[in-house]
Amino acid sequence: MTARLLEGRPVADAMWQSVAEQASAFAVQAGRPACLGLVGGADEAAAAYARQIERQFGRRGLRVLHRLVDGPEIAGAVATLSIDDTVDGIVLLTPLPAGTDPVAAALAISPDKDVDGQHPMSLGRLAQRHGYFAPATALGGLRLLQYYEIPLEGTRAVVLGRSPVVGLPLALLLLDSNATVTVCHSRTPHLAEVARQADLLCVAVGRQGLVGPEFVKPGAVVLDFGTHPLPEGGMAGDVQTASVAEAAGAITPVPGGTGPTTVAVLAQQTLRAAEQLERTRH
Amino acid sequence: MTARLLEGRPVADAMWQSVAEQASAFAVQAGRPACLGLVGGADEAAAAYARQIERQFGRRGLRVLHRLVDGPEIAGAVATLSIDDTVDGIVLLTPLPAGTDPVAAALAISPDKDVDGQHPMSLGRLAQRHGYFAPATALGGLRLLQYYEIPLEGTRAVVLGRSPVVGLPLALLLLDSNATVTVCHSRTPHLAEVARQADLLCVAVGRQGLVGPEFVKPGAVVLDFGTHPLPEGGMAGDVQTASVAEAAGAITPVPGGTGPTTVAVLAQQTLRAAEQLERTRH
Q: A17, A91, A101, B208: which could join B228 in a potential S-S bond, CB 3.0 to 4.6 Å?
């Protein structure tokens, strides 16, 4: 392996350190901890993610409320948290239970509390480049690039995947950083050839091992957002990490690459929401 | 000149014909004409655009209210139209007068009446690919491509310009049509080389004659969104039309290319808003 490994842990650690300081300052000033509300159903992946958030937030003095509800009650539970003055951020846990209208549920999030960028207003503000909450996984990827001082301005970035949760907001964030951005997807022909034009290749397609070395220009930076649990334990990404690392200049491992930054970004955005909301309340 | 000329007039004519039929059906059903509210200041370009909208809408039985106000009153005038039950669509005329907060003004538009896609909610819905009003100029470009049956799925599109009014929403619309989309901007190096990869080149940079034949792959389709009034009268685009037409397979003229579809799209979206609003009122 010749590529530099872009580990997420030191990025997240730096973020958590400032989060802990900000969280205790907020609690003193507001007389209560900043609080994130989670709303979701009984899905096991959603529950595991909720426990991870609770553990990480708890260690830095941030409060988490977890509302476990059935599909038809999701939007109502979100709306209740939206008007609760002791709740600063709201995250809809996915996958949503059967019977949930995902659009209605996202629209029930107050845009002022939309710390995972799930409301269309947040994505629109991101596209208009003013005052946005970005989806945490996408922004975590940008934070990782910034931490490792990967140049973005004037580079060619290719994003594989156009989901409104990762690929598309990441493309908008990279555009805002003055990269020239190409978005590819399942209907893109000659995918490897297009990907090989990238100085920065970001992969968020949700298909294990799709990206091999033929996708990568020698020396390119490769970000892998895939998370596929393996039957034998452990996790794989969308990128064939070992073989791609022979060609790439730098690559995120899976696990331990883009993953650890997501919850830290959620905490940062929860604190930003809390501070803004406190200002408007007084 | 070898390229096929993609004229906007027949595209707009077809749209206006269905608009006129829909408008009279709406007026009978609702007991009033569908109505577009325009809000702007004393800028001459804004006033000329308002007169053009009034003339075109008037001929098809659509009402236009034009509110001419000073900068600090813009958001209030928009908010008044947002709650007026006889107004179905709202357009902020640009350039906005000095002293206007453009974000506050756009946020005052009810998203249900945002027929020119100026509210961040509309851009976010476009990015999330559900139930959107798109900026009219960008959607007009897509309508022109559809009218001339230009294939989009699987093609490589390059958009020059990332403004939230034209370039960015057009990129989102093309992505939604399954093109592979690259967005370039003022910080893109080797712009001509990137543009030459395009099967479809869309130019919305606001710089007269920036794009010459060296930007165009032989046979590519070129859409020009530039509008630069010439001192000797007439209009030029962002593309050097005559020389680019030697290389391109098809190209929009300026004037008479992407321009005529804009106001027709506004009328279509005003009628769609009117019909949706009437349904929710009864």
A: B208
B31-110 with B136-259: one CATH topology? yes
B33 preceded by cis ω (within 30°)? no
Alpha helices in chain A (DSSP H): 8-30, 44-59, 74-82, 102-107, 120-128, 136-147, 167-176, 191-195, 241-247, 259-281
| Cross-chain Cβ contact A124/B123 below 8 Å | yes
| Contacts with B, A 80-119, CB within 8 Å | 103, 119
Contact B189, A154 (CB under 8 A): yes
Q: Which fold has domain A30-111?
A: Rossmann fold (3.40.50)
First to last CA, chain B: 56
pLDDT tens by residue, chain B, 282 residues: 589 999 999 999 999 999 999 999 999 999 999 999 999 999 999 999 999 999 999 999 999 999 999 989 999 999 999 999 999 999 999 999 988 999 999 999 999 999 999 999 999 999 998 888 999 999 999 999 999 999 999 999 999 999 999 999 999 999 999 999 999 999 999 999 999 999 999 999 999 999 999 999 999 999 999 999 999 999 999 999 999 999 999 999 999 999 999 999 999 999 999 999 999 987
Report CA torsion sign: A207, A212, A214, A216. Answer: positive
Decide if B178 and A194 are in contact by the 8 Å CB cutoff.
no
Answer whether 0.95 is exceeded by the pTM: yes
For B128, the closest of A123, A129, A183 (CB atoms) is: A123
Of chain A residues 159-198, which have a CB less than 8 A from chain B? Answer: 162, 164, 168, 171-172, 175, 178, 180-185, 187-189, 194
Give, as one character, the DSSP assignment of residue A198: -
Which residues, other chains included, contact A231 with Cβ-Cβ below 8 Å and sequence gap of 6+? Answer: none
CATH of A136-259, picked from 3.40.50.720, 3.40.50.880, 3.30.70.920, 3.40.50.1820, is 3.40.50.720
Domain spanning B31-110: which superfamily?
Leucine Dehydrogenase, chain A, domain 1 (3.40.50.10860)
